[in-house]
Amino acid sequence: MQRPEGFSATKTPRTRPRGRPQRGGSAQGAVREATQRRRRAEKAEFTGLTAATRRRRGVWALSLGSIAVVVLATVVLVLSPVLALRDVQVEGSHTVPETDIQQALSGLYGEPLARISNDRVADALSSIRVIQAFETRIEPPGTLVIILNERRPLGAVSRGGAFVVVDAAAVELWSEPDAPAGLPVILVEADPTSPSFDAVSRVLLALPPEISRSIEGVTASTLDDVRFTMRESSHEVIWGSAERSREKARVLGPALVAAGAGRPKIIDVTTPDSVVVRQQD
């Protein structure tokens, strides 16, 4: 077979398309890349674990340090004589002398303030009946402040040849051989369950201090029949029930002025809208 002129029988080698890697090189590159990714992941994981470990160690160190500080502070407060009780100050005392409070708490002197609880203070002050409630405040290094809430003396009842001062709850506060000045004598039994005592208490609590101090004696035969006698003028005041006590207290002052200081009179304020002042029989 005749070949055209210029035709060569030499085979032209096949060339691979550009951009397509050889199979062997492609596999090796993929392995290297996978290995690098794995190493990077392991390194990142190790770094994260190391940082987390450092954080945990820091937290533990801080916690242990805080616990140590608390323990040390507790030991100092509970055992150190530096913060022991050396002085007692009293606030809110109107009836009880401060020396009585200090004497009652004398058994606690020298003890660390942190160990002096309110229960121990209450036990020490339990014999002082005038104290209704109290609060405490510590002032380092060695002062305990007692803030008192005293019971308000209402009047005195005659009992066993003496006069016992009571409050509105019929709690006995103290006793005196004679009728105490500035307090009315209550002529009913001081019993918290007694309706008569309850009525008398309500009336005395409603009166202004300047009037209650001028009352000589107060009684109540029934809930609606509270009466009292004024100390200097001997005027008798018919109060009635404890209802509208504020209005009655407001009109009683002018009625006492109108009654004057002469012959004893009867002042009836049971109806505060129409006060009656008349001579005693």
Description:
With 281 residues, the chain is an alpha/beta fold. The chain folds into three domains: 40-79; 81-150, membrane protein fhac (Ubiquitin-like (UB roll), Roll), CATH 3.10.20.310; 155-279, Rossmann fold (3-Layer(aba) Sandwich). Helix content is 37%, strand content 22%. It is built from six helices and twelve strands. The strands form three sheets. The chain has a six-stranded mixed sheet, covered by helices on one side. It has a three-stranded mixed sheet with strand order 1-3-2, with helices on one face. Strands 4-5-6 form a three-stranded antiparallel sheet, with no helix packed on it. The mean pLDDT is 84.
* Overall pLDDT confidence: 84
> Could you list the spans in which at least 5 consecutive residues all have pLDDT below 50?
none
Contiguous helical run count: 6
Question: How many strands appear in the DSSP assignment?
Answer: 12
Please name the CATH topology of the largest domain: Rossmann fold
Approximately what portion of the residues adopt beta-strand conformation? 15-25%
Name of the top-level CATH class of the largest domain: Alpha Beta
Radius of gyration: 47 Å
Apparent shape: elongated
Q: Which class do the helix and strand fractions yield? A: alpha/beta
Please outline the major beta sheet: 6 strands, mixed
Total domains: 3
The CATH level-2 architecture of the largest domain is identified as: 3-Layer(aba) Sandwich
**What is the ordering of alpha helices and beta strands?**
HEHHEEEEEEHHEEEHEE
- Give the N-to-C terminal Cα separation: 174 Å
Q: Please estimate the helix content.
A: 25-40%
Seen as an oligomer or otherwise, the chain set is single chain
**Strand order within the widest beta sheet:** 7-8-9-10-11-12
